[in-house]
C-alpha cells in the first residue's frame, strides 16, 4: 500500500484545540475522512485536561492563539511533560508565527500557516503521525 493510501490504524486519535468552532469542524472532518478519531477542545484549559488524562492521543493539532491563559505552544509544552513524545501540529496566522518560537520547534512539531487547504492539512497530519 502506497504512502498516499495510508489510513489511520485502529484507534489513532487526534486532539484539536481551537477556539473557532468552524476550524475544529473542518479539522475533525479531515481527520474522520482519514480514519482518525477526533477529540475537540475549545481552549487551552480543556486541551491540557485531555493531554493530562489517560486518553490515547497520537497528535495534537492546536491553534497558537488560544483563550484559557496559555497559548498553543505553552499548552503543548505542558502536555509533553506527561507525554514526552507527543507530536504537535500548530495552526497559526502569519503574525502568530513568533509565538511558536520563531521556527525553533522541538522534534515532532510542525507549523501550518493559515489560510491552508485541506489537502495540506491532511498530508501534514499523516506525515507527523507516520513519523516522517
Question: Quick gist of this model?
Answer:
By secondary structure, the chain is of the alpha/beta class. 35% of the residues lie in helices and 19% in strands.
Shape: globular
Pick out the low-confidence regions: none
Instruction: Indicate the CATH topology.
Output: Rossmann fold
Overall strand count: 5
User: How would you characterize the largest beta sheet?
Assistant: 5 strands, parallel
GO biological process, one term: phosphorelay signal transduction system
Organism: Methylobacterium dankookense
Domain Response regulatory: 13-129
Modified residues (4-aspartylphosphate): 63
Q: Could you characterize the architecture of this molecule?
A:
The chain is of the alpha/beta class and 132 residues long. It has one domain: Rossmann fold, CATH 3.40.50.2300. Helix content is 35%, strand content 19%. The protein has four helices and five strands. The protein has a five-stranded parallel sheet, sandwiched between helices. Helix 3 links the parallel strand 3 and strand 4 (88-92). Helix 1 crosses helix 4 (118-130). It is globular and about 35 Å long. The model has no long low-confidence stretch (mean pLDDT 88).
